[in-house]
Amino acid sequence: MPAPRLSRRNFLQGCSAAIAGLAGARLTNVAFAQSDSPADTLVVVFLRGGWDALNVVPPMEGDDRGYYENARPDIQITNLLRLDDRFGFHPALAPLHELYQQGNMAVIHAVGLDYDTRSHFDAMEYIELGTPGSKNAASGWITRYLQGTGTSAILPALSTSGAPSSLLNYVPTVNLNDPGDFSQWDNGLAQSQQAALRQMYNGDTLLHRAGMRTLQSLDIVHPLVEQDYKPANGASYNDDELSHQLKTVARMIKLDAGLRVATVDYGGWDTHEYENDGNGGYIAELLGNLAAGLSNFYLDLDSGYTDRLSVVVISEFGRRLVQNEDYGTDHGHGNVMFALGGGVNGGRVYGAWPGLRNDQLYDHADLAVTTDYRQVLSELLARRLGNADPAAVFPGYVPSGELGIFHAS
Amino acid sequence: MVRQQTRINRRDFLKLMGAFAGASAVVTACAPKQVPAADPTRAAPLPVDMTGAPPDPILPSVPLGIIALNRLAYGPRPGDLEVFNALGSTDEERLRVYVAQQLAPDSIDDSEFEARYAAAGFETLHKTHEELYYDHIANNPYDSNDDTYWEWYSQPARELVDATFLRAVYSKKQLVEVLADFWHNHFNVYFWQDEGVPLLVSYHRDVLRKHMLGNFRQMLEAVATHPSMLYYLNQNNSSDAGPNENFARELFELHTLGAENYFGVRDPNTIPKDANGIAIGYVDNDVYEAARAFTGWRVDDDIYEYEDGVEKTGRFLYYKPWHDRFNKLILGRYIPADQPDMQDGRDVLDLLANHPGTARFIARKLARRFIADVPPESVVEAAASVFLEYRNEPDQLKRVVETILLSPEFKQTWGAKIKRPIEAAISMMRALNTDFTRLPGGIPWMCSMMGQALFERRPPDGYPDVKEAWANSMSLLYRWNFAVAIAENWMDDEEQKRVIRTDILGQTPAQLRTAEALADYWIPRILNRPLSGPDRQAVIAVMAQEYDPRDELPQDHIDWILPAMVEVILMSPDFQWK
Question: What angle (nearest 5°) sits at the alpha carbon of residue B250, between those of residues B248 and B255?
Fold first, then answer.
């Protein structure tokens, strides 16, 4: 006997009872395959806008501290948290400083894109495609990594914000911000509609494959939709854009559905003005959110997952050494990256330091790049991700030696 | 000198954003509680083999009217295709007449839209730029600790969002609406950029809509002197003592020459010159020199208080004390010192607007919007030639658009694009004759869940216009959910002040009683063409449920199932192509 059509009012009143009742019996967990690989789950946090490496990890002392202070009379960072004899953290990074001291986090300085551009969009595209100087690649670097491993996991890749170029044309990617939002709005006929969609999206175009993946994703995420999430170890996620995404990643890791890569975006780093005013400015707020988000994420997963976790924090470029007139900084070159995880040889700052004297700067203006970002990722691929052939991921790139950021899994 | 700031504090601002995000949260009330559907027994571990990226197969061609109404309009409303087909005896002629009509928007009778617009009762959209600034920024009557302050501050921009949806759904001047969207993305300004939210109204109306069928050079100067852009890309603070390069960089990279003509951080002397001695592309040095040329282009807003010659009108201000008076060298062109007011910046705009690289970049981007994600070079070259030939004419951009729309490439391409989320949402409302006057907050909220909140692209590049950006699970799922929400009438605001209605039963001929007949009515009604055999059967199966496709269905079955069947047609891949 067909049910009467629900008015919206009825629907709102009844949505927890009637609708759940319709399919309540189905609220059981999907039986997932175990992870098919001993490789780490990689989480890439991309800080959009170009974060100011020199105010994230400023020099502590010596000539470079002098050049830094002269160049940034109004926006220099003091009260640093000591990393080694040369560098310290911006004080807003205190929660990460603990992870650093515990050996779970490493810093790579003067790292970046070894290509001449100060364009956000070019730099992001080059980094994410893994092909500096060319935007013609049909796949991102993570796409090539995952294709190379031939994973059969149900959920190999997750993006919590849009469709990043690093996963370009990797159709198995599940894209969602929050499992609680990831459900088909059901008038009681969603099952029937999905059967029709399975027929209609059975095809070869990008759209067809994305549609089919969406249908599969509904099944994968299904067990999480109505569950409240309790982070482990008393971890507590803040209510900001980054923490929401990290919480989602943690939940998906704990599904044990073989998640290999998750990409997370956090924007707002294009600090052309008021980077560091009396109240700390934009950068203190951003770094505070970053540190809180990552440290709680790590704490949450330090419940049996961090041994198989590698987190990389990257941004498209650093910023100019000299502050501008608006208490900000303009687009620069050399940058800083973070690596976190059980496989990190942490508590160290890696990379050759080029110095901040004018003739040591890139284009007499910016921190120089002494470590190609692909060096870091190649070491990660080889040591933690089971990929001995980084050249297939980064065509034409040959790592130079090894900095030793990661130990073998 | 420390500049005293009276700008809006960012924390207040975030609070404001939160307040209005919450206003539309009602529609989410049910979503998280939904059963995610799909039978988990079918979800047995699925080997994922779809890792490659083969080129998309060529789709079957469709009648030219369908191409035209999906690419230079937000999809057909019922009857639109018949009107198109009556415009001439050949496809060629019909398209020519349709494009000519659409490119002469003032001659189009738009009374249905105008009646709705009048009924909507917008309170701020008629205000001049100066009034918007005076009323909503300089003299906000409310206490900044109260929500009313922020409601008043953001009301014009929120009304702009509502009005833009209203136009896109109901206006017959469809090409104008598509172009307004194109140019807002091209010269993107983020809705919530701190200092001038109410001014988005005058930016959209007096800059983009005013010039989008006009002259690019004039449009460029209108953009470069509008406070929305000056604030958004930090030009408002750029002085000789410390030029801020943000606007200048995006002017080159996003507004004119494009990244395709960027040679990176290089010695400008190494860049080849054309016959006129102008560099064929730009390097960083050009950006910095241009930033110097624009110093002193700012807003008359008195944010630093008590500066001589600065008032609080909210207009553009050329502020000579901040201008870098010395000579510059840009794209190989020497710009002498001590030029008249604004001349340095105008010289840069001239150089960029007349550059062949700009012509190709704009032509390619328009062709990407109107033809294919990767448009054929032939049509790009043709449009770029028109761009350059008519660069001093008042209808330059109209001619460029016309060249693209009447090109053979336009007629020969189908399915090389998918609708972007906002286009999908609007086209669903058009296809179903959905009825609204003031847009419920849930509609823009759904678009944000699809990844395309209107006017809310934060970076200056505008939303992507290629399918790779939109063919992902979250975006597609909410596209499907939008079909459900619209067809089931679930999108009213909670207090029912703003309602949106779709009467599917009322639009269905009463004599249609079988699943087959209902499917065969609604498939062409929405798509204007048939579905493949198996896809048609899938639609019929939804309608039939436990009945035979040719059984006469009871009325309560039709009442209950028909919207779901219509939703499936809107969810289909065929509805997404354009």
Answer: 110
**Measured between CB atoms, does B242 come within 8 Å of chain A?**
yes
CB of B29 less than 8 A from some CB of A: yes
Which residue type, as a one-letter code, is found at position A222? Answer: H
Looking at beta carbons, which residues of chain B come within 8 Å of A6?
Answer: 488
Nearest-CA distance A83 → chain B (Å) = 31
The one-character DSSP state at A407 is -
In a domain, A367, yes or no: yes
Interchain proximity B46–A222, CB inside 8 Å: no
Q: Are residues A265 and A162 in the same domain?
A: yes
Among A119, A110, A50, smallest CA distance to A373 is for A110
Whether residues A381 and A323 share a domain: the answer is: yes
Residue A35 contacts residue A255 (beta carbons within 8 Å): no
CATH number for the domain harbouring residue A281: 3.40.720
Which pLDDT tens digit goes with each residue over A1-26?
333 333 333 333 333 332 332 232 22
Q: Please check whether residue A76 is in contact with residue A194, taking contact to mean a CB–CB distance below 8 angstroms.
A: no
B469 touches chain A (CB under 8 A): yes
Instruction: Record the pTM.
Output: 0.84
B35 and A19 within 8 Å at the Cβ level: the answer is yes
**In contact, B357 and B260? CB cutoff 8 Å:** yes
A234 lies in the same domain as A158: yes
Residues A197 and A135 in one domain: no
A109 DSSP β-pair partners: A336
> How big is the CA angle at B358 (ends B457 and B315), to the nearest 5 degrees?
55
| Polymer length in residues for chain A | 409
Residues A150 and A197 in one domain: no
Q: Are residues A267 and A363 in the same domain?
A: yes
Cross-chain Cβ contact B461/A5 below 8 Å = no
Q: Classify A366 as helix, strand or coil.
A: strand
Rounded Cα distance, A302 and B59, in Å = 50
- Residue range A265-275: mean pLDDT, rounded: 91
Using only C-alpha atoms, what is the Rg of chain A?
Answer: 23
Which structural domain, as residue segments, surrounds residue A214?
183-218
- Counting every residue written for chain B, the total comes to 578
- What distances in angstroms separate CA B473 from CA B166, B358, B449, one per listed residue? 28, 35, 11
Question: Which of A1, A5, A222, A276 to probe the B interface (max B CBs under 10 A)?
Answer: A5
Q: b/e per residue, A33-52, with b = 16+ CB within 10 A?
A: bebebebbbbbbbbbbbbbb
| Interface confidence (ipTM) of the complex | 0.89
Residue-wise pLDDT for A355-406, tens only, equals 999 999 999 999 999 999 999 999 999 999 998 788 899 988 999 899 999 9
- Contact call for A222 and B245, based on CB within 8 A: no
- Total of domains in chain A: 2
Q: What pairing do the DSSP bridges indicate for beta strands A157-159 and A261-266?
A: parallel
Among the listed residues B497, B441, B132, B191, the one whose alpha carbon sits nearest the alpha carbon of residue B313:
B132
Chain A residues touching residue B254 (CB < 8 angstroms): 121
H/E segment holding residue B297:
strand B297-299
Domain ranges of chain B: 103-213, 215-354, 356-412, 505-576
* Tens digits of residue pLDDT in A30-65: 333 344 467 999 999 999 999 999 999 999 999 999
